[in-house]
């Protein structure tokens, strides 16, 4: 298998459309705008508690265009992770529409949602969630094996992605033999091994020291640009947030763009 291409988002999207139809996905044609990857309209999320209903979002709106690297900041408990889960078909809204990659994700069955996530979305979390009994290469290959790719091909592609994140010499190491930064780089490779168009990252540098966090963020920038991704990053680190193309604050169930900081142009500053 050849190395991953430098990302031609439209070409890969066209190639995947027949698979979407064959799998029973129903695209929201009215929202299938080429310039947008995510469109959220009237999003509400309510939880039942012993003290009554907890309204996390009410009438939330969001649009993310192709190629953006968007940071979402806000206090703990504001709902940042819940929003990311809804965008990535891991949770469902109480009301409103969520269109991701031209698909109304709230309408998917559990099986369809799993297939959609595997094909369209890469996830990175604060904790790497690598399987301790498997090597770095085997961990990266897992999403491909889950979709039925032959083991030899999956391992070859995993080796390519470990090379992308600068860990080709750690392919046969298990997670316990890797540093925190190396573990998160393996998690990044695993998130992107299926060539998704959307990367969702929930506090991906939260468990790392300042220097390592900066390097991992630079790697995310590099992969975002070199593979034509659209990415959403949840973070408490404003130094990193303002280096994204847009910074949004989630507060009281609303998203507002931060205008009191000078957002720096997105540049490929990979140093890993």
Defining traits:
globular, Rossmann fold, 4-stranded antiparallel β-sheet, 272 residues, single chain, 8 helices, disordered N terminus, alpha/beta, 10 strands
Structural commentary:
Residues 1-33 and 261-265 have low confidence and may be disordered. The protein is α/β, with parallel strands linked by helices and 272 residues long. The longest helix is centred in the last third of the chain and has 17 residues, at 210-226. The strands form 2 sheets. It has a 6-stranded mixed sheet with strand order 6-7-8-3-9-10. Strands 2-1-4-5 form a 4-stranded antiparallel sheet, with no helix packed on it. A hairpin with a 2-residue loop joins strand 9 (246-251) and strand 10. It has helices spanning 9-22, 80-87, 110-120, 136-146, 151-164, 180-192, 210-226, 238-241; strands spanning 36-49, 52-65, 69-73, 95-100, 103-104, 121-124, 198-202, 230-234, 246-251, 254-257. 34% of the residues lie in helices and 24% in strands. Helix 4 packs across helix 5. The chain contains 8 helices and 10 strands. The protein is globular and about 50 Å long. It has a domain at 9-24 and 67-90 and 110-257: P-loop containing nucleotide triphosphate hydrolases (Rossmann fold).
């Amino acid at each position: 298998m050849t190395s991953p291409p430098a990302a031609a988002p439209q070409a890969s999207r066209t190639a995947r459309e027949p698979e979407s139809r064959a799998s029973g996905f129903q695209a929201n044609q009215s929202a299938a705008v080429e310039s947008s990857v995510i469109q959220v309209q009237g999003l509400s999320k309510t939880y039942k508690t012993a003290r009554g209903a907890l309204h996390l979002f009410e009438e939330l709106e969001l649009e993310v265009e192709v190629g953006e690297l968007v940071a979402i900041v806000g206090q703990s408990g504001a709902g940042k992770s819940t929003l990311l889960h809804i965008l990535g078909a891991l949770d469902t809204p109480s009301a409103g529409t969520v269109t991701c990659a031209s698909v109304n994700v709230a309408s998917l069955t559990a099986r369809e949602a799993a297939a959609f996530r595997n094909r369209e979305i890469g996830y990175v979390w604060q904790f790497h969630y690598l399987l301790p009994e498997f090597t770095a290469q085997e961990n990266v290959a897992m999403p491909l094996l889950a979709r039925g790719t032959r083991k030899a091909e999956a391992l070859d592609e995993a080796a390519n992605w470990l090379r992308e994140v600068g860990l080709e010499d750690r392919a046969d190491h298990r997670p316990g033999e890797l540093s925190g930064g190396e573990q998160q780089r393996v998690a990044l490779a695993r998130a992107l091994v299926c060539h998704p168009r959307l990367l969702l990252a929930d506090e991906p540098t939260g468990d790392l020291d300042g220097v390592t966090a900066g390097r991992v963020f630079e790697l995310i920038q590099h992969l975002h640009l070199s593979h034509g991704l659209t990415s959403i990053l949840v973070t408490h680190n404003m130094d990193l947030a303002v280096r994204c193309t847009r910074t949004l604050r989630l507060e009281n169930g609303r998203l507002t763009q931060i205008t009191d900081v000078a957002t720096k142009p997105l540049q490929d500053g990979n140093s890993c």
